[in-house]
Amino acid sequence: xxxSWSVVLSCFPAVLGVLLAVVALPGLSSAALAKNSVKVNxxxxxxxxxxxxLYPKGTGESQMPECERWSVCSRVDTYSTPWxxxxxxxxxxxxxxxxxxxxxxxxxxxxTRQYKVCESADALPICRVFKDITWTNIIGTDNKFQxxxxxxxxHNTTTYISGQDVKMTAQGLFFYYHFSCSPMIKMPCGRKExxxxxxxxxxxxxxxxxxxxxxxxPPKATCPTHHTDPYVxxxxxxxxxxxxxxx
Length: 247
Description:
The chain is an all-beta fold.
């Protein structure tokens, strides 16, 4: 179920010369572009823009499954041009937030992604680093996807895959991927050492990009923040599964 690809990025102006490999998170099946886009006017972007909405394959807003308690109803990606991935509908006619602002009371933030829940995010407890599971990604054999929140990571932490399970239920086989919190340790980058990883997967009509911070660049050097920045080169040996790699 996991797709793997590698990406590398060095602090510039240093010369690139290191190749690393990372395992990307399991993705959903191909999502369809919503027939209707949402007009948003957000302080973050200072102007109105069309926010693309993706649905799981074969569904639209009226066919979305109902959210279970603490399931993520929408995932908002703010890496570049913002877009939304809808996962389920809130119960009782409640609307799932698609706001680009993280202070709407229903958001858990992880890097450039905002996870929206139907419940008040303030009610989620704070995770203990290395001990608690912050969220679980659940994928069925039919590629149906759920993300269920358990707690919020403390400030100055990052997330990592801490375990996985396979369970057989009356509805079929399900794969569970558990994520936990880890302190964000900022080590100085060595010469030609990568400072950030980018994993890029094309999901028409958007790009799904996962970033991972590795180390702090030395004085007067800057770590690129986008995979199209200067000194970022595409890896032509990348796997042919829809993912692209950069070095």
